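re: ur question from yesterday

yeah so i grabbed the chain u mentioned. its 226 aa long if i counted rite. heres the sequnce exactly as i have it in my notes:
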Amino acid sequence: MSTQMSKDIGCPHCGAAIRTQMWPGICAQDNPELRGRVLDETLFDWKCPECGYAAQFVYPCLYHDRERRFMVYVVPNGSGREFQPVDVGEKFPQLAGVKKRVVSSPAELKEKILIFEAGLDDYAVELVKYALAGVLDKKYGGKTLEGYFCFADEGENRIGFSFFPEGGKDPVLRKTSMDAYKKSLEIAKSREPDEGNRFVPVDALTAKDLLEEYRSDKEQETQKGI
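ran it thru and got these structure tokens back, copy pasting raw so excuse formatting
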């Protein structure tokens, strides 16, 4: 069930106290219109009716999709890795088997929804994205600041991402084959950590750690002649 609350927010421009509607809990099935607002990136938009000042007001929000069995918790103003993992197994045993992720921005929330609605494994998606970001870094001679999953098409054998290279104004779309995803899925499945019944971050750092562990294991196998 979705939860709604209202809170007075002080406008940073004119100082007016604006009564603002917030959704700390969102159920995709109960409120599909809220899902739509997450995907079109308007859920956290805020505008002062007194002076017209507009900004993004991001607050803690738990998104739940009962049918696809995943939950994503938005923890703003920091990294999802600063979130202290909470094992919800004792209080909520019914959540066992539900994917539970923690993110730090609306864009990351949107990405997780798109990944899980596409029926994909987010560990594998992060591995593909990490590899493509590395290619872009070499091409542009800089650092890829952000990257997000966009689509997957089995029929066309393509998976696509939008990247934001450092110094660039516009996002860069990069696509690769679903074969790359399937290979990444093999790596991910053999090395995914035990999440227990906790909310965990699955991001670029996760992909980096998984890939380094995979390469280390392969080097050891080669040295042993396996």
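noticed a couple things. Residues 204-224 form the longest helix (21 residues). also Residues 60-224 form one domain.
anyway ttyl
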